[in-house]
Design the sequence.
């Protein structure tokens, strides 16, 4: 493997990951199926809950759930990329990368690019299905840009977090440690009902969960009435800053072991 | 009979020696129950909702989720036996296929019993108890074990048919779909989306959920219990037959 | 009913949409013999073993083990054989003692008899200290030893070992060889051993059958097979590489060329090892200085090469089709 620059390493690795993902049914199918399952189950099975007094949302329940599933697809796109990193270390392929890349930051960038493409694909599929199912988008162009940019920023957070864990543990046993925090963060938020209709400890958790803010903003973009846009972006950018440091630490750990 | 007991013992020991399989199969359903019951408690305000506590409604779900984990555990154990050649070793002994099958089933039931007991205790301690009273406990356990057996044998069938653990893992999304496309989140008559309600009506998992749920909420609902047992028993019978046939092909001996 | 320990007539195994893995094998193994079944990957060794141990029905032909037909009398065959197949076939969550307890019980031993037999076997294979540890933590050599112990639980008259030392270190391999030799010598057990290692077949086997692409291409004692090829080869490396051509001309007078080092010349001596002195004199007469001179006795690889045109060592054939 020739010793390439940051860009060529990133591009090469991204191509390899994306190619593997698209050509390997065991990788692509779960990534597409799970968000669709959740969307179908929640939008289809729970749609009646939007008639609970206090459920005030300008669009239908399908749209409400789409906001969540969009973030879920973005987050798990990053999480699954973390799995890929762990798998690469376990198989020894990562050692090849570490030896071949002059600028090892290109490795993380390569995984990041592939995470974006994976998420974009999943989000596209979910969006098409949601539109068929009655998704009501009344937001304008700027709102839609905001909607998807925020989602992809969250994807970056998840990917950096997952990469940091995977590079530290360097085995597939990192899987649950990557997946569980992401899962909890997603589900301890107003998934099915607005914050005010939550009860018990989940409401308390949602109050401090940064994803609550992001989810509210996403749902606002969908109906063209976003609230707390700046705080939502600031929170996500802060999370990116933290996870960049986290993944850099992971890279250092992997370099020491290589 | 002795061979059945031997294989059963091995199956149980093996299961219990894999805490990575036992713990998540109990812990995750309870975690999800906790999240769901807090997150959706307001759904009980819907007219026609059968109980004032979403926890009481949702406690049936872990019993099914636990059974799904059993399916993966059983399937993975059988696949390991095939991949390592251990099944060949057993084939070279006087062991009969039926003993092997019954032995495997015992492991599934052991895990199912741990799960059922745990979920029952949680349901009693954190919920409104069992409306069917103490007499409902053996019925609940029996129904739960039948459900575990049904899914466990499906997992074993997949492993015997394909001979590898990856195929068993690949079946998980189907189980997942079967659970979600049911009356898991709302009673069937409150499901607004027509196609969803129709799928849930034809999905045997709905009746398994409703059978367990009836013991917690309404007490002795003969129809719900009969349908729950019929669906669980029916799936179990088909799965056992399929797994037995697959074992005959897999454990080929002249 | 055959009085041989193992006998086959025209044994064939064909897989659906696949090759004939075993294509008409006739062999006969006498009671108490150690029979080495030697061949490269994909030759049909494991498939043959699976048929003889009743795990795979033949497509055509017949086979008898301990006098019982493998198809019609499978249960009787299984009662008289032990097998340690290619995979160590162990449950990683059980201990060695638990494996033996299960195996003894499956063979109808109970209580004190089972415990005594388990103890004997653990001692025999050197696993007493590790008996209560889970097999998942065992080394490759330990697994193989336990595998052998399990195959011997019911004191079989015939033992099938399918590549028993593949992947083992030298020490573990020697230990296993010793055990196989002891079984055959002390207890008169018939051993059918498949291997891809020449040395293993050479050391252990009373007779060797060489299989290639589903056919037996040679059979006999290792010495007889090598004598059949007969002649040793000499390999010489010149001090000055420029002399290589002249060396080749000289040596070609003594026999046909064979594969050797690229830096030297190797020929099979038509007149046997007595010609070695003549070779040295001929090279000296041409003033060719010799850096190295070696005399190689024929090996089983030479036998394989003579029969198939290919070398067994370094053979990179396709893996054997799955036996189920």
Sequence:
């Amino acid at each position: 493997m020739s010793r390439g620059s940051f860009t060529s390493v990133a591009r090469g690795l991204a191509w390899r990951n994306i190619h593997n993902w698209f050509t390997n049914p065991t990788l692509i199918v779960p990534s597409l199926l799970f968000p669709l399952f959740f969307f179908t189950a929640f939008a289809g099975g729970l749609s009646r809950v939007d008639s609970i007094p206090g459920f005030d949302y300008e669009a239908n329940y399908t749209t409400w759930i789409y906001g969540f599933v969009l973030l879920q697809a973005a987050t798990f796109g990053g999480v699954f990329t973390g799995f890929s990193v762990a798998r690469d270390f376990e198989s020894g392929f990562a050692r090849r990368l570490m030896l071949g890349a002059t600028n090892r930051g290109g490795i993380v960038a390569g995984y990041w690019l592939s995470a974006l493409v994976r998420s974009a694909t999943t989000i596209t599929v979910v969006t098409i299905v949601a539109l068929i199912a009655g998704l009501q988008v009344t937001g304008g162009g700027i709102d839609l840009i905001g909607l998807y940019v925020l989602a992809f920023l969250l994807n970056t957070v998840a990917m950096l977090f997952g990469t940091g864990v995977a590079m530290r543990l360097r085995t597939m046993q990192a899987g649950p440690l990557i997946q569980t925090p992401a899962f909890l963060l997603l589900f301890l938020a107003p998934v099915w009902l607005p914050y005010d209709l939550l009860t018990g400890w989940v409401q308390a958790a949602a109050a401090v969960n940064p994803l609550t803010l992001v989810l509210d903003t996403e749902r606002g973009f969908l109906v063209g009435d976003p609230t707390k846009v700046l705080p939502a972006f600031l929170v996500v950018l802060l999370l990116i800053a933290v996870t960049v440091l986290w993944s850099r630490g992971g890279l250092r750990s992997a370099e020491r072991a290589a | 009979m002795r061979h059945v007991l031997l294989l059963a013992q091995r199956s149980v020991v093996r299961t219990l020696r894999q805490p990575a399989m036992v713990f998540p199969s109990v812990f995750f359903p309870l975690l999800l129950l906790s999240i769901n019951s807090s997150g959706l408690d307001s759904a009980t305000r819907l007219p026609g909702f059968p109980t004032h506590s979403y926890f009481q409604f949702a406690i049936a779900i872990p019993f099914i989720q636990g059974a799904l984990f059993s399916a993966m555990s059983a399937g993975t154990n059988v696949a390991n036996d095939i991949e390592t050649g251990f099944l060949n070793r057993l084939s070279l002994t006087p062991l009969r296929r039926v003993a092997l099958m019954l032995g495997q089933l015992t492991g599934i039931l052991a895990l199912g019993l741990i799960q059922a007991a745990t979920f029952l205790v949680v349901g009693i301690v954190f919920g409104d108890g069992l409306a069917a009273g103490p007499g409902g406990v053996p019925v609940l356990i029996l129904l739960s074990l039948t459900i575990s057996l049904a899914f466990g044998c499906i997992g074993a069938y997949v492993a015997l048919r394909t001979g590898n653990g990856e195929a068993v893992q690949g079946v998980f999304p189907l189980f997942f779909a079967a659970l979600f496309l049911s009356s898991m989140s709302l009673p069937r008559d409150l499901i607004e989306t027509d196609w969803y309600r129709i799928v849930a009506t034809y999905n045997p998992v709905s009746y398994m959920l409703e059978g367990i749920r009836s013991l917690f909420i309404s007490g002795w609902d003969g129809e719900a219990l009969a349908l729950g047992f019929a669906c669980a028993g029916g799936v179990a019978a088909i799965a056992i037959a399929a797994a037995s046939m697959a074992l005959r092909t897999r454990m080929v001996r002249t | 009913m055959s009085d041989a320990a193992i006998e086959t007539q025209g044994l064939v195994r064909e897989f659906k949409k696949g090759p004939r893995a075993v294509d008409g094998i006739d062999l006969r193994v006498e009671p108490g013999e150690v029979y080495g079944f030697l061949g490269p990957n994909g030759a049909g060794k494991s498939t043959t073993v699976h048929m003889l141990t009743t795990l795979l029905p033949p497509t055509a032909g017949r086979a008898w083990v301990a006098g019982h037909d493998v198809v019609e009398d499978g249960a009787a065959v299984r009662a008289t054989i032990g097998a340690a197949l290619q995979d160590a076939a162990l449950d990683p969550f059980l201990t060695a003692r638990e494996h033996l307890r299960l195996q003894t019980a499956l063979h109808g031993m109970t209580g004190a008899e089972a415990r005594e037999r388990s103890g004997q076997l653990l001692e025999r294979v050197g696993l007493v200290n590790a008996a209560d540890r889970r097999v998942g933590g065992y080394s490759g050599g330990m697994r193989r030893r336990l595998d052998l112990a399990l195959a011997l639980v019911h004191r079989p008259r015939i033992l099938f070992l399918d590549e028993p030392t593949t992947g083992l270190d030298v020490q573990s391999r020697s230990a296993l060889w010793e055990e196989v030799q002891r079984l055959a010598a002390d207890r008169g057990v018939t051993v059918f051993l498949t291997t891809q290692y020449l040395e293993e077949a050479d050391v252990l086997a009373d007779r060797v059958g060489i299989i290639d692409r589903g056919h037996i291409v040679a059979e006999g004692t290792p010495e007889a097979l090598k004598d059949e090829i007969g002649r040793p080869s000499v390999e010489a490396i010149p001090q000055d590489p420029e002399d290589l051509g002249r060396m080749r001309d000289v040596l070609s007078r003594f026999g046909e060329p064979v594969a050797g080092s690229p830096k030297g010349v190797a020929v099979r001596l038509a007149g046997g090892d007595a010609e070695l002195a003549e070779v040295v004199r001929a090279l000296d007469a041409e003033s060719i200085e010799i850096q190295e001179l070696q005399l190689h006795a024929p090996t089983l690889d030479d036998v394989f090469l003579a029969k198939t045109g290919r070398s067994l060592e370094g053979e990179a054939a396709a893996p054997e089709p799955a036996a189920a």
In short: Chain B touches chain A at residues 34-35, 37-43, 45-46, 166, 170, 173, 176-177, 180-181, 184-186, 190-193, 195-196, 200 (CB under 8 Å). Chain B has a mean pLDDT of 91. The CA atoms of residues 68 and 176 of chain B lie 8 Å apart. DSSP finds eleven helices and no strands in chain B.
